[in-house]
Amino acid sequence: MTGTGASLADWVVIAPLLLCLIGGALLIVLRGLVKVQVWVCLAVIVLVIAGDVALFLRVFAEGPLTMTMGNWLPPFGISFTADTTGAGFALASAFVTLCVVLYMQSDTPEGAVRDGVYPLVLLLLAGVSGSFLTGDLFNLYVWFELMLIASFGLMVLAGKPLQLDAAVKYGVLNFVGTTLFLMGLGLLYGALGTLNMADIVGAARNGDAAALTAIAALFVLAFGIKSATFPVNAWLPASYHAPPPAISALMGGLLTKVGAYALLRTLLMLLPEARETLAPVLMAVAVSTAVLGPLSAIAETHLRRSIGFLLIGGVGVMLLCLPSGDISAATGGLSYGFHAMLTFAALYMACGLVERATGQVDTRQMRGLYAANSLLSLVFIVLLLTVAGIPPFLGFWPKLLLLQGFVGIGDWLSLGALLLNALLTLIAGSRLWSHVFWRGTDQAVAPPAGAMAVTALLTLVIVAAGLAPGLMVAAAQLAAADMLNPARYIASVGLSP
Amino acid sequence: MIEPVFAVLVGIFVAAAAYLLLSRALVRVLLGLVLLGNGVNLLILVAGRLTRAVPPIVPAGSEVLPATVANPLPQALILTAIVIGFAMFAFLGVLVFRAYQEIDADHSDRMRLTEPEGEPQPPLEY
Known about the structure:
The structure holds 2 protein chains of 2 kinds. By secondary structure, chain A is mainly α. Chain A has 22 helices and 2 strands. By secondary structure, chain B is mainly alpha-helical. Chain B is elongated, with a radius of gyration of 23 Å. The chains are: A mainly alpha, B mainly alpha.
């Protein structure tokens, strides 16, 4: 039952998690040394990024890579399997975390550092990376809970009444979501007798279709809550605007994407037959989320809540590839997830700068920022156009791939929802921009230079990636092919397909 | 064949939890979360087969387990879930108490700071 030990090079699969967990523990030990915290945190994140880059390049070139814990052969040992999807998302999340930690330097009070903001950030990154890299469903649940408890801590850090109110709603609903996930995986274990993802693929082909469909429906509800899909998205606009903007950026960039990733992983790869049965439900969920998100953003005047609604619309777009399971659409969905991580983090960061410059959180009281800060207005409009999917920005390419997929299979409903989402996002975004930047001539103070520079640099990276999308599209094509035909994934774990 | 009885018990736990979770009083919501967690733990135990069997210990001189043994995996899963669930409950308990102190509300209708009621309409012009 035991195999030979993993080679040292294979440790790269769990290096991001180990680094984050050790770094987080170290920072808790070093609590008293307030000045040291940020440097240790930055060093750990840079190492994590280096590990993620090495992992991504190796997985991209050679195919999925597996490490099974304790030399217990799969499916008995807990496997970590990095495929192109997981490695790419892990890399994006580490990069976003680096940008957010740099951004935090201009507005994080010493009290927050004393309360442990940096260990919590590292543990959040550990939870997110673990969710992307694990090859075991129960292990995925554990990483979800780690991510959740770290995000609770970040959300209530200053302990203002607004944050407590938001954290109660966020906490209770997300805890219900993960408990439903636990229920689904318990039933899946009862039905198939395994929790290893590669093993589930084979076992599900011969499993009881009715039972597996019910389990898949539980997963849709559980991950639907986590990724804020309509109609279980009410917690997101009630909570994401309460913490400081940097924390909003971290959560908006990473957390909902993990939920959407789990939905794609379970439904596209593990339970494809149940997905086909549930296709009408998935279609209703994805289409309504994609359309209602930006529609709500038009009616919202609180700046960061309005971005939250655009974020919900983005999750809907990412999930539009689910009902059909078409390869071009799945490529689009996966690359949309990558783009949305970077873009929404940058957008929340830009919102934080606007709030600092105007001293307001509601767009009704903001005006005339264009005259005071033209760079910020440029960054903001570029990010809004990226979200809407206007060429040549990064958001255009995923939407083009989705569009090609929908035209190829004649899925006109998804096509309409995608185009309507783009139009409504453009309307909501241009309204926001003109209200904040173009109205009136009031003088505003300049936002902190360091945070401005980080936001501008992240935007520059997004623009550059949009001008040269070749690598992202090639990686997403490979990721989607492995997701829909997991033969390479299963072989890498060491099971027969 | 004790499974159907346990299945009904899980159903009662989850139904009671759903009833409590729909309440507007936060203390009831917390109790609902505890019940839901326990119902799910029981569900994992049932899903991993219930038999009158010996513990999963390999007898001396043998390399494999005897034919009917209890399934040890659900217990490991439940133990993990209990630990996580308890930590979450402890955090949420403190959170609700702090919210009660700061906002003076243990009722979701009076917790409207994040989504204020009666806000004016968004501007219609540009």
